[in-house]
Amino acid sequence: MLASGVRAIYGLEIRSLLRDHRTVFISIVLPVVLMPLLLLVSARVEQGRQQRETTRHYKYAVVGSDSLFMLELLRDSVRQDESDPADSAAPTFETVATTDALHDLEVRAIEFFVEGLGPEEWRAFLAEDTARADELEEFHDTPVARVNFRSNRRSSSVGARQLRTRLVEIRRVRRDSVLVQAGFPIHPDDFATLDVVNVASEVEVAGARLGRMLTLFVVLLMMAGGGVLATDTLAGEKERGTLVTLLTTGATRAEIILAKLLAVTSVALVIVLIQIVNLWIYLGLGLIDVSSGFSASVPPATALVLFVLYVPVAALASGVLLVTSAYAKTYKEAQLLFMPAMLGLLLPTLAPFLPEISLSSAIVLVPLANIAIAARDILVGQANWLMVGIAWLVTAAAAAYAGWFAARALEDENLIAGADSDRAEFLGGPALFRKRVLQWFVVFWAVKILLEMNIGFEDIRWTVVFHVGVVFLAAPLLMVWHFKLNVREALALRAPKPGVWLGVVLGAPAALIVVTGFFQLVNLVLPVPREVLESFGQAIMPEEIPVWQIVILLSVIPGIVEELTFRGALLHGLRRRFSPVVLCLVVGGIFGFFHFQIFRIPSTALLGVILSAVTVLTGSIFPAILWHTINNALALYLGSEGVELAGGSWMTYTGAAVALGLALWIIWLNRSLYPDLKGEPPSRRAPGGSNPRSSPP
């Protein structure tokens, strides 16, 4: 039985909620109509896309020194279309004249263009491209057809792919006819019949597609619906002064936070229930004629299992919302913190989009991500119930911790009283910066995600300059200006001892190998497909950009700017909050999470821990800048030369670990610790935050 205080406060929260028409609309009305609307729109969009792709009219040009050969192939393609007049849904192609095919492609006058190249011309091209040397050795003296398109335009990429499919079929027919004319005793069609069968049913395919999105969608609605109540129930009451009044009643603080947590969780559970019922009604009963991509099977038993699965998710989201509201001084500040909190909860729900990921890996220990994958497996009908149970317990434990953490917030009198009783709010400057630095970085993390999702450049050079050179550099400079920090102290712009540089030069290559070995260990439990790694490598090292520009963009700029941000502003703001060891772990972990590709986070976090330790030991940002720059430059060089550190033996990794330890020992011998660290005796602190230790004690 709940205590009377909990029941009374819970009832008050629910009555207040029902009187708030905005909250009722977001929490109940919107979830009721959003799911069927989403299903209907998805079905229409998918049907329209399929129709457009099959009936589209594509304009293209034919150029090149051997364009006559290309035109002959295309005439065969036209004859093939005319031979099947019943296929009226097939795309059509129109050849247009051009004097500058590349320009016409850029201005959308054509969707793509085809080059007809002679054998010698193609040999010369392959000879210049060292990455395709194997093709040069295998190439025979035949004409070459090269299709040029823009991958960032769907009409261009789809049209080019469809024309290429036709050309490949024409080539096969021609090749077979040559064999028959030459007297080949068996017709090519008589060798064997190839048949490819997808044994997964349409329901399983649809379940996989719906399962990838379901948790993301449900958590998004939970945050939107519960966020209104959570923001008002603590931050709003602190601003109005009613929270202090509530604390003077007979209810204990534990009862207050439990009642508020139950109220927010109730809203989240109502949202979950509405979405599960929507799935059962519209998909299970087939009331909406959706496309095959979303025709998943959701019988009542599956709907019930999904509801139980999302119960700890609702509790976790509610706990996070209450923590966010508890640490906000005002209603406006809670709204500001809401977006980073929502993005932080949504990020793990993207786990089902990772290829080859399953609950049998370490992902089962990651809250929310494990539930997202479990929901996908349940909809597909291939759930490992033991792993699903473990995932449920892990997320439930995270939810319990979030609730306990929110309860602890009420023990802090400064948080209860709000801004009026917080001395740092009056002092401002460095004192306030130490309290706000994590909030600033959470907001910065959210802003960076939004910018990368919405602002992109075709040229990777502009991408790096904007997202690293501008956005990352703006963060520490804005903090220094806003909190009126001493630039030299905040960014650790101090000269280290000369002996430190020997440790940096020795340690950077060794750390690169150690981090690579750590990535291999993580890859055993959280495997990353090789195609993903190769695609990532090709994206950051395009062949058309000179090497010296790549080094500046991906080594020098990140080495300087990211270090000023993390080992500069962030480490400076947290130096009194955590002990040196924990400080390095926290700064390194945050550094890892700013690298949004999930497979990069663990290894990048380890590198961040090492760089943080170097900064703490030297009291200077400059060794970390050089270390970071060498690390990136060496990785780029080895990648361009085809050297894979991932294939090293255990002796290689052990030797690198020993070398890294030696480098850190050299730095330790030449240390001048970061000033004003937590746990440092006051007698050791110099006035103004400078460090009097010029030699080891």
How many helix segments?
A: 26
The strand order across the widest sheet is: 2-1-3-4
Shape: globular
By oligomeric state, this entry counts as: single chain
Structure description:
The structure is a single chain. This protein has 26 helices and four strands. It is mainly alpha-helical. The chain has three domains: 258 residues, no CATH class; 134 residues, D-Maltodextrin-Binding Protein, domain 2 (3-Layer(aba) Sandwich); 256 residues, no CATH class. The radius of gyration is 31 Å and the shape is globular.
Keywords summarizing the entry:
four-stranded mixed sheet, mainly alpha, 697 residues
Quick summary:
With 697 residues, the protein is mainly α. Helices cover 68% and strands 3% of the residues. The chain folds into 3 domains: 4-42 and 201-419, no CATH class; 52-185, Periplasmic binding protein-like II (D-Maltodextrin-Binding Protein, domain 2, 3-Layer(aba) Sandwich), CATH 3.40.190.10; 434-689, no CATH class.
